[in-house]
Specification:
single chain, alpha/beta, Muramoyl-pentapeptide Carboxypeptidase, domain 2, four-stranded mixed β-sheet, two-stranded parallel sheet, 7 helices, 30% helix, globular, binds zinc ion
């Protein structure tokens, strides 16, 4: 388990309650067994870009019970895992809806919630999406381990990924409201 960027620790946004820390360490250890060498990258919230924007779930990162975790990305050419995500600030690299999948963010955007994709818009100039592939298998494994951990109360994810990763049989996955940042670039995990 490592911070996705020094920013999250530099801004002192890496504190969680002992129970959440234990849960994350246990999940990270189980990831090691299934996918040796893999790192669980934690993000957080409250970094300067989003100050003043109504990104609701990040306001809830105040009580030590919440943490955001990155999805897994690979280098498209070498197939090797990326250290963290291709975004310079961790957020905004989305496993977007494929043709035929429900696009919740577009739905919200169409209803006037334009800021749902703000972090995606901010991140996109910094990387070429074609150079990276979404690691569905490892991301699914992380999601399952989180859902199966007794300390984890709920995990926010966008509906198309809940479906694509086959997570519908778990009762811990929720979709966020339109006032939230989109959640097809990270898991929001809480006790
Ligand atoms: Zn969050």
């Amino acid at each position: 388990m490592q911070p996705e960027s020094f920013l999250f620790t530099a801004f002192n946004r890496h504190y969680v309650r002992p129970e959440l820390r234990r849960a994350l360490e246990e999940v990270a250890e189980q990831m090691q067994i299934r996918h040796p060498g893999s790192v669980v990258w934690y993000l957080d919230a409250n970094f300067p870009f989003i100050d003043g924007y109504p990104l609701e779930p990040h306001f809830s990162h105040k009580d030590g019970k919440k943490v955001d975790l990155a999805f897994f990305w690979n280098d498209a050419k070498s197939g090797k895992p990326m250290p963290g995500t291709p975004s310079p600030f961790g957020y905004g690299v989305c496993a977007e809806p494929l043709p035929g999948e429900y696009d919740y963010a577009a739905d919200c955007d169409g209803r006037g919630f334009w800021y749902i994709s703000l972090l995606k818009t901010l991140a996109e100039p910094f990387f070429n999406k074609e150079n990276y592939t979404f690691d569905k298998e490892k991301t699914r494994e992380l999601a399952r381990l989180l859902a199966e951990h007794p300390s984890v109360g709920k995990v926010l994810i966008q509906p198309h990924l809940e479906k694509r990763l086959g997570l519908e049989r778990y009762d811990k996955f929720r979709q966020h409201g339109c006032k939230a940042a989109r959640h097809d670039d990270h898991f929001h995990v809480q006790l």
